[in-house]
Design brief:
single chain; about 40% helix; about 140 residues; five-stranded parallel beta sheet; Rossmann fold
């Protein structure tokens, strides 16, 4: 039986921290689905670029599937026959936030969440910080895979 994990997020942008979580999840699961939550209120061209960039990044890895979705994550887990949700945890705030969602997913839908702790060197890296650096014209290339 193939064990598949779903790694959902906005990934705006997908950072080296996210890539590290995918790499490590592949050590635990046969397949990882990177599921990009698409917000219809945001620029569809940005969504298309983000999806294309990630598909290109993992084009040579058949164990990684990149999809877009705009449904409830729990519904997507069932649709894709995934065994769990993967979440990266950088700090206590992440854990508190993710724990609330994980409890709901487990109690209402029976879906497990597996937490992978961020690499200590990447703990301070967030998509928000990367977007802010980019907004001010800073070189973010080393923060992106």
């Amino acid at each position: 039986m193939q064990r598949t994990a779903l790694f959902p997020g906005s990934f705006n942008p997908f950072t080296v921290g996210h890539a590290d979580i995918v790499r490590r999840a592949l050590q635990l699961f046969d397949k990882v689905i990177v599921a990009i939550g698409v917000n219809s209120a945001k620029d569809p061209a940005d969504n298309t670029k983000r999806i294309a960039r990630l598909r290109n990044l993992y084009a040579d890895n058949p164990r990684v599937e990149v999809i877009a979705y705009d449904s409830l994550t729990a519904d997507l887990v069932r649709q894709k026959n995934a065994s769990c949700i993967i979440r990266g945890i950088r700090n206590e705030a992440d854990l508190a936030y993710e724990n609330e969602i994980a409890q709901v997913n487990f109690s209402l839908f029976g879906i497990e969440t597996v937490y992978l702790l961020a690499d200590p060197e990447l703990r301070e890296l967030s998509s928000t910080v990367v977007r802010e650096l980019q907004r001010f014209g800073k070189d973010i290339s080393q923060l992106l895979p």
